[in-house]
Amino acid sequence: MEKSATFNNRLLPYLLLAPQLVITFVFFYWPASQAVLQSFKREDAFGLTSEFVGLENYQALFAQPEYYKAIWTTVVFSTLVALLSLSIALMFATQADKNLKAAPAFKTFLIWPYAVAPAIAGVLWIFMFHPSLGTLARPLRVLGFDWNPLLNGNHAMTLVVMAAVWKQISYNFLFFLAGLQSIPRSVLEASAIDGAGPLRRFWTIVFPLLSPTTFFLLVVNVVYVFFDTFGIIDAVTGGGPAGATTTMVYKVYADGRLGGDLGGSAAQSVVLMVIVIALTAVQFRYVERKVQY
């Protein structure tokens, strides 16, 4: 006769969930609801007086050519950072998973950047590539390359992409390495005995088995490039030159904190939140179909 476990305390599960529910409400649902309410108001720069204006903030927002430029900049920036950080991290993880003598040191060096704050990462990269003070910008000038991210928008975008990719590689590397180490060695050895080369083993066996990890990292990286790269952009370029690196999240800050348009900034944050939720839903709806668990 089988015995089934019973749990008589009905209150304890809710008590265990309470801390997480409180944190989620205080730090997500409450600020999000306040942003939605604020987006329908016109407020002074100090937030002391407000007036309900309905959809005027949204109408004014979508009438700005600068906002569409920020959307396009965000698309380019997010695509480059996500693709580069995932591909480079996967390449490093496949090398670190091999039986190398220096593998522990290799792994340690790759994990270190994860401990660096985004703003600090931005400062490190601007110190290296500052047009007049950068340690790596001087050799570029010696080689005849006129590198100046303070004046050239393409150079500025290249710099913030490199800084954001460098910051995110460590996070992706950790999960890819864990995923690679969970793949049974017997499967790879059997495919090698059958005559499959390294590239064929990777694309037909390793990469499909890594699809759950890749899907998770894709979702995380989308959220990262939309929100967590603010510190890098603020430290490196400040959204310049001429708005070349002004992403949607940085424009929220620039218009609200620097420009004093609190209602318009709140409307931008609501639009950004809707876009990120929609992208995440699309990934779970369509991309997850190709994931092999």
TrEMBL record:
Stored Pfam families: BPD_transp_1
PANTHER family xrefs: BLL4140 PROTEIN (PTHR43227), SN-GLYCEROL-3-PHOSPHATE TRANSPORT SYSTEM PERMEASE PROTEIN UGPA (PTHR43227:SF9)
Keyword line: Cell inner membrane, Cell membrane, Membrane, Transmembrane, Transmembrane helix, Transport
Main location: membrane
InterPro entries (UniProt xref): MetI-like, MetI-like_sf, UgpAE/MalFG_permease
Record-annotated membrane-spanning stretches: 12-32, 70-93, 105-128, 156-180, 201-227, 266-287
Quaternary state and interactors: The complex is composed of two ATP-binding proteins (UgpC), two transmembrane proteins (UgpA and UgpE) and a solute-binding protein (UgpB).
UniProt key word Cell membrane: yes
Localization per Swiss-Prot or TrEMBL: Cell inner membrane; Cell membrane
Its job: Part of the ABC transporter complex UgpBAEC involved in sn-glycerol-3-phosphate (G3P) import. Probably responsible for the translocation of the substrate across the membrane.
Membrane topology of the entry: Multi-pass membrane protein
UniProt source species: Afipia massiliensis
Native organism taxonomy: Bacteria, Pseudomonadati, Pseudomonadota, Alphaproteobacteria, Hyphomicrobiales
Protein name as catalogued: sn-glycerol-3-phosphate transport system permease protein UgpA
Keyword DNA damage recorded: no
GO BP annotations listed: transmembrane transport
GO cellular component terms given for this protein: plasma membrane
ABC transmembrane type-1 domain location: 71-283
Similarity comment: family membership: Belongs to the binding-protein-dependent transport system permease family.
